[in-house]
Amino acid sequence: MSPTVREIQRFLHQLARRYPSRPAECLMRFVTDWAVIQEAWRRVRSSPGANTPGADRVTARDLPPGSVETRAFLHDLADRLQSGAYRPGPVRRFEIPKPHHPDQTRPLAILTLADRVVQMTLKLILEPIVEARLGKRCFGFRPGRNRYDQIQSVRRLVATHPEEYNAALTADVASCFDKLDHRLIIDDLQQVSADPDLLSLFRLILDQVGSGRVGWWRQRRVGVLQGSPLSPLLANWNLTRFDHAWRQQYGDRAPLFRYADDLIILARDATAADRLRSPLKRCLRQANRLDLAADKTHVATLDQGVPLLGLLIRRHGDPFAHRHEVRVFIDPDPFRDVLAEIDDWVEQLGPDRSLGGQFARLNQRLRGWFDSYQYAYDAAQAFESLDRHLFVAVRHRLKEMLGCSSLVLDSEHHHRLPTGHHTWRADGVCLMVLSSLPRRYYQSSRIRPPWETEADQAASGAILSETGEVIASGSVARPDELQPDPELVAIINQDTTEEGLGPIEPDVALSVDGEPSIASDRGDRNPRPAATIQATNGQTELALDDDGQSGAPS
Predict the structure, then answer these.
(1) pLDDT computed for residue 477 by the predictor
(2) CA torsion angle for 449, 453, 455, 459 (degrees, to 10)?
(3) Residue 161: which residues within 8 A CB-CB, separation 6 or more?
(4) Where are the alpha helices (DSSP H) in 289-378?
(5) What is the pLDDT of residues 281-303, one digit of tens each?
(6) Residue 254 and residue 299: Cα distance in Å, rounded?
(7) How far apart are CA 406 and CA 103, in angstroms?
(8) Are 535 and 513 in contact (CB under 8 A)?
(9) Which contiguous run of DSSP H or E holds residue 542?
(10) Rounded to whole angstroms, how far apart are CA atoms 478 and 100?
(11) Rounded Cα gap, residues 515 and 510, in angstroms
(12) CA–CA separation, 410 vs 420, rounded Å?
């Protein structure tokens, strides 16, 4: 990431923590900043769907690194954003099958290349502000957090309070992304930003959801585009309404953990958990005008096992210690789906393609499964079962495909790893054996976003454990303490060159204690006024114009 962008994010995040109830002003200056647009382009270009064309049929491959077309494309986009002439383009829509449920589909939107860059710039600027205000028990689609943090947070809370939590209510929000209310989204964004230009841009992006729709959508505008860079951030921020409402009503009597639209609420026993169904429906309806998926709302006890994000939290008896431990196991149902997916892949092996290439693609899937299950208590047994299943399935398919005997097949493709595990090899590529990979054990760590250092959290009194609880505190940082990192300022002063985009010429200059700021220019274009972060004589300002006008940060 560009040091300039990192400094902008760090500055906005610290101000959001310092002034949690004050919306930020003049954020469009950061959105249209040249360094931010370059960073957004780099992220879009390196994303998995960069070469998937939208309605404009333009992909990242059509804009090669270092080309005149690339700079012209980004300059034109920056001009349209700054002048207010930008309008979102049409959307390509698809229905794709849900994982493990081929009879069900979910909508997927593919934006034009320009729209992806614009939404990525908005995410780069808004995410640090929103992140400072999200709940501590919200884990989905957040930087520095993952599903294992939530699973271990639930496990630790249950283990430390065995008398209070013995059951859980698990639920899922029905069609969450498709039914987010636009009025509520705009109301939420007004708490983040007071910039009218930014809010107008968001209204245009939200109206893009209804392109081609008539009837009921005109009466109540709902939904965000799944597959767009902004949709997870908007969904998380909008569902914070529900998080706050539930916490005010129940607090620690029924703690709520949320991973995107997956909910889990802990209770004393199964009866108490079942009684939470109606309050949960009512709270979600009143806060966000959303409903629960009836077929995904279940009550489970810790003795039976509580399913959570593909794993199972269960109270496990230890015969040697004569006590019960709360451990994380692999959920049998999703694991059976994995074995069925392996069978489907093996059936697709064909002689018309490189066998080694097909092995390499499967290895990517195997690595993903390994990362998903390696922290489970019974991961070793599950990996051995998966390895045996895969070895036998591939053996039968290769004999059928190549038409050779077992002796010839073993001599040509059988391979023994240095660990002693048996696998198959083709074109120099060995099929991965999960049992041979070194497993890591989950270690609790302090949760923080990438732009925030441990010193920043200590200064703001927000060092968190994996349960989302404060484990260290400190004095709240004053505005004059929010100064850029001197090392990053030195890096910014260097004449660096980014691949394919030319030198970074930051529009946001950093002025610390009266030192001159960096002038901004975009190559052959006329320089525009730079936004300057100033921290001078104990007063932090956000300078916006060359004529000396500045506004207080929000």
Answers:
(1) 30
(2) -40
(3) none
(4) 332-347, 355-373
(5) 999 999 999 999 998 999 999 99
(6) 14
(7) 38
(8) yes
(9) strand 539-543
(10) 51
(11) 9
(12) 16
Closest to 508 (Cα-Cα) out of 549, 480, 551, 544: 544
Q: Which of 358, 82, 28 is nearest to 198 (CA)?
A: 28
Whole-angstrom distance, CA of residue 101 vs CA of residue 295: 14
The tokens describing 454, both together, are 């441990």
Q: Within the chain, how many helices (H) and strands (E) appear?
A: 18, 20
Cβ atoms of residues 201 and 30 within 8 Å: no
State both tokens at 106. Answer: 């979910």
CB neighbour burial string for 452-469, b if at least 16 within 10 angstroms, e if fewer = beeebbbbbebbbbbbbe
Q: How far apart are CA 31 and CA 5, in angstroms?
A: 11
Q: Alpha-carbon distance 277 to 513, whole Å?
A: 56
CA distances from 380 to 52, 335, 362, 370, 434 (A): 38, 13, 20, 10, 9
Are the C-beta atoms of residues 430 and 415 closer than 8 Å to each other? yes
Q: Quick one: which of 299, 335, 302, 306 has its CA closest to 316?
A: 302
Q: pLDDT by residue (tens digit) across 129-163?
A: 999 888 889 998 888 888 888 998 999 999 899 88
* Cβ atoms of 289 and 184 closer than 8 Å: yes
